[in-house]
Amino acid sequence: MAQQNTNIGSEMNDIFEKMHLRLDQRFQQLNRQVNIHSSSLLHSRKNSGTPLSFSPIHQRRLEEAINNFGLLTISTSLNDIRRCDTSTLHQQPMRKTTVKAPTKIEDNNSSNSNDNYRTIGKRGRQKGQFSNPQDVLIITNPTRTILVSDTINQTVQLFSLDTGLCTGSFLSPVNSKQSALRRPIGLSNSLNNTSTCFVADYDQHLISSWTVDENGNGRLLKKFGQQSLIGPKGICISNQSQSIVVADNKANSICLFNSSGVLSHRFGTRGSELHELAGPHYVKFAEQDNDRNIIVTDFYNNCVKIFDIERHGQFVTSFGSAGTKNGLFQAPTGLAIDYERGYIFVSDWGNSRIQVFDRQGSFIRIIELSTTDVLYGPQGLDYEPTTRTLAIANAGKHCATLVNIV
Hints:
Elements: H1 2-48, H2 59-69, E1 117-120, E2 122-123, E3 129-130, E4 133-139, E5 145-150, E6 155-160, E7 166-169, E8 184-190, E9 193-201, E10 206-212, E11 218-224, E12 232-237, E13 244-248, E14 253-257, E15 263-267, E16 280-287, E17 290-298, E18 303-308, E19 314-319, E20 332-338, E21 343-348, E22 353-357, E23 363-367, E24 378-384, E25 389-394, E26 399-404
C-alpha cells in the first residue's frame, strides 16, 4: 500500500507539472494573438476614423485564472487523490523567437552567438532541481552563492557559483506545522547587509526575511506585509535607507516599506494609462546610490516604466510597447541593471529573450544563449558586477542560467 501511495503521488506530481506547463504555453500563445489582433485593429480603426475600443480578451479573468492555478497543491493521501486523464491536454506547437546575439554588448555590428554561459539545475522535485523557477539572487559574502526561488517546489535553494552544486535551502522553523514558503517569487538583499535576504511570497501575501547559517541553509527571521499585500512578486532593497520596494502584482500597485517592515506609502491603480499599471512584475532602483526613481516591468501593458517615489510615485517615463521586434515586448518580467555601464536587462517573457537597453531606454541588443539551448519564458534576473555575470531564472527550461556579459 505504501508503494502504491508513493507511485500515485509521483504520478499526480507529473500531471500537475504538465498542466502548469500547458497553461504557461497557452498563455504565451494568447498573449501573442492579442498583440497581433490589437495592432491590426488599431490600424483599421485609424484609417476609418472610428474610435478604438479594443479590450484584450478579458485580461483580468486570464490573470486571475493563472494566479488561482498556482494555488493548486498535490496531496499524497489516497483519500484526496483523483485520477486525471492527461490525454485531454491538447498539445499545440509553440513558436519560439530566436535571435543570435554577440558576446560583447558594446559591438552592435557583431553577429557571433553568445556561448559564454552555463546552467544550474534541471527539472524535478529533488534537491538541486527546479519546477518553475521565478527569481535569482547572487550573493558573494561569505561565499559566492546564487539563490533560486521555485514556486511549485515551494522553496528557495542555494547553489555554489563555482561548482554549480546545491549547498542548502530555506528551511521551515523547527516545530512548524506549515511550510515557511508557499509560493516564493521575488528575491533581494542590499549591498550593506548581504547576509539578510528577502523573499516575496505571492500566496501568503507577505515578505519574509532570512539569514544564511553556517550550514548553508536559510533561517527565517521575520515576516511582514500581511495586512498590506495581495499578491507580491518583485522586490528590491535600498542601499541607502534600507527601505523595501515591492511590486504587488495582484493589486497593480507598488508598496514601500521602511527598514522595519512598516508600510510607508503605496501608489498605482490598474489601467493602461502612463501612470497606471497592469500586472507589475519586478522592480529595481534606477540608480545604485539614489533612492528616488524605481524601474517597473508592466506585464500586461508590455512596457517598462519609471516612477519617482520621492514624489509619491509620480510617473517619469517609459520605454517599449507590444510587439516582437527589437525594443518591443510581449509581457516583460525580470529586471537587472549594470550600474557601472548603464545597461538595463529586461526579460521579455512572451518572446523568450533578454533585451538590453541603455539608461534612456534605447534598445542595444538581444542576449541569447545558442541555437540549441534557448531561453524559454525567462523570469527574474540579477547582475553581479565584479564578474559581470547575468543570472536568469529560465522558468520554461526549469533551470538557472549564468551568462558572462563581456
